[in-house]
């Protein structure tokens, strides 16, 4: 495992957690040879581009939370969050992935790393009926902010303290402006520790604007 940026010192990652992360990366690299889990151009930088990028989420909202990870794909950030929760001994990640091959990879990753997570091989629109509650929602390279609000709204109605942690690129302000046409929310922009032009958007107190 490569040294982590100083921003993650507070996570106090144990040797056992390091071993789990290493096991996950080895498994990811094996499966990525046959399944398109991430952009092929980023495979050589799996630690910086994917693992550390995913760890930002837990660093921002650590503790025994219940997460819904939308479009979990290659396990970033959902499996990484689940591994960090395993180190804490509490909390859970619901991994939502409708692609059966990717869902099979995620189940294998959970089994081999001990991540505190489970896989729901269903469409995101169906997930609120299957998952009654979550404290936080994560999504990475999935959809426009406005659509992500639609996905998360059923959970936000049940839990007024729900938070979203969403990786976004340099064009994030356009997405924010568009979403504000339909939604009200509190917003905190966290600078990415991986990509200078990227952010993690933390949203809370989501409500619909009147039509």
TrEMBL record:
<comment type="similarity">
    <text>Belongs to the methyltransferase superfamily. RNA methyltransferase RsmG family.</text>
</comment>
<feature type="binding site">
    <location>
        <position position="71"/>
    </location>
    <ligand>
        <name>S-adenosyl-L-methionine</name>
    </ligand>
</feature>
<protein>
    <recommendedName>
        <fullName>Ribosomal RNA small subunit methyltransferase G</fullName>
        <ecNumber>2.1.1.170</ecNumber>
    </recommendedName>
</protein>
<dbReference type="InterPro" id="IPR029063">
    <property type="entry name" value="SAM-dependent_MTases_sf"/>
</dbReference>
<dbReference type="GO" id="GO:0008168">
    <property type="term" value="F:methyltransferase activity"/>
</dbReference>
<keyword id="KW-0698">rRNA processing</keyword>
<keyword id="KW-0808">Transferase</keyword>
<keyword id="KW-0949">S-adenosyl-L-methionine</keyword>
<feature type="binding site">
    <location>
        <begin position="124"/>
        <end position="125"/>
    </location>
    <ligand>
        <name>S-adenosyl-L-methionine</name>
    </ligand>
</feature>
<feature type="binding site">
    <location>
        <position position="76"/>
    </location>
    <ligand>
        <name>S-adenosyl-L-methionine</name>
    </ligand>
</feature>
<feature type="binding site">
    <location>
        <position position="140"/>
    </location>
    <ligand>
        <name>S-adenosyl-L-methionine</name>
    </ligand>
</feature>
<comment type="function">
    <text>Specifically methylates the N7 position of guanine in position 527 of 16S rRNA.</text>
</comment>
<dbReference type="GO" id="GO:0032259">
    <property type="term" value="P:methylation"/>
</dbReference>
<keyword id="KW-0963">Cytoplasm</keyword>
<keyword id="KW-0489">Methyltransferase</keyword>
<dbReference type="Pfam" id="PF02527">
    <property type="entry name" value="GidB"/>
</dbReference>
<dbReference type="InterPro" id="IPR003682">
    <property type="entry name" value="rRNA_ssu_MeTfrase_G"/>
</dbReference>
């Amino acid at each position: 495992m490569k040294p982590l940026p100083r921003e993650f010192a507070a996570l106090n990652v144990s040797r056992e957690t390091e071993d789990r992360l290493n096991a996950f990366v080895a498994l990811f690299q094996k499966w990525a040879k046959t399944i398109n889990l991430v952009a092929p151009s980023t495979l050589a930088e799996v630690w910086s581009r994917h693992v550390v990028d995913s760890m930002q989420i837990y660093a921002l909202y650590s503790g025994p939370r219940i997460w819904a990870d939308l479009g979990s794909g290659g396990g970033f950030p959902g499996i990484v969050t689940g591994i960090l929760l395993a180190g804490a001994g509490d909390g859970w990640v619901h991994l939502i992935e409708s692609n059966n091959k990717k869902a099979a990879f995620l189940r294998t990753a959970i089994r081999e790393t001990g991540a505190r997570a489970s896989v729901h091989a269903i469409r995101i629109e169906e997930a609120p009926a299957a998952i009654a509650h979550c404290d936080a929602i994560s999504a990475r390279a999935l959809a426009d902010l406005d659509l992500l609000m639609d996905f998360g709204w059923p959970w936000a109605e049940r839990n007024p303290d729900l938070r979203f942690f969403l990786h976004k690129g340099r064009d994030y302000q356009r997405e924010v402006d568009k979403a504000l046409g339909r939604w009200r929310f509190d917003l905190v922009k966290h600078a990415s520790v991986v990509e200078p032009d990227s952010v993690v958007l933390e949203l809370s107190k989501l409500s619909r604007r009147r039509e």
